[in-house]
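Quick start: what a row looks like.
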Amino acid sequence: MAHFGILATFDHNSQCWQTYKNRLSQWFIANNIGRAEDPQCIKRRAILLSALSDGSYKLAADLALPKEVQDLPFEDIIKLFDDHFTPKTCGFSERFTFYVATQKLGESYTQWAARLRGLTAHCGFLNVEEALRDRFVMGMLPGPEREKLFAQDVKALTLSKALELAVSVHCARQGAASSAASHAPNDQALFKISQQQDRVKSASDKKIQCSVCGYKNHTASVCRFASYKCKKCNTKGHLQRMCKKVNYLDNAVVNESEDDDVFAE
């Protein structure tokens, strides 16, 4: 006969007994294995024992001594595991853990609220929802979400409303940040443009100055004024602005007011 769901093996070294017991109970309900169908609990005992790993089965056998574990009633085996795996709790210790809990980096507000609720399991609070609301707000990471909740009326604020407000403010912040980023200049593109401009400028600075006319867009060998005579020293091969005999300059700076008649030709 086919069964609903999958009944996994229980290994006490890596699994929580309370969680497994709850799943086992639901599996029995889904497959119609109850007191009516199994009044002596023989079938349920066999299912539980066969679902234990070797190590967990040996543990059950040791706990059952001097009796044989397979001879114990189903409820007795459950109680053996309950007594063994359920730690003794101290109310103040559990409350201390709850009160010092804070939201972790990267933990969403929904996850933070769920973790807090799990910490209240053994605290014995008279008003669980009020304690959860207070710790949820006070233990939040600093930011606009926390400031928004601190401004609320404590009498009207519930945990569900606090969670809703925190998520709403967080989503609004993310939307605003995304919008601002889409309109901001692309720093990488600007950096590339700046690099290109620097390369062009550097290449321009490295060009050799023509010794005939003084410009840097060509060399003396192709200068069209190479056959002109200098008006200061009357020597052929350079213009007066590049005359070394008169100016005693190794690299004269081009003065656009000189040789206007020559460049106008």
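That is the whole record. Residues 248-254 have pLDDT under 50 and may be disordered. Residues 159-183 form the longest helix (25 residues).
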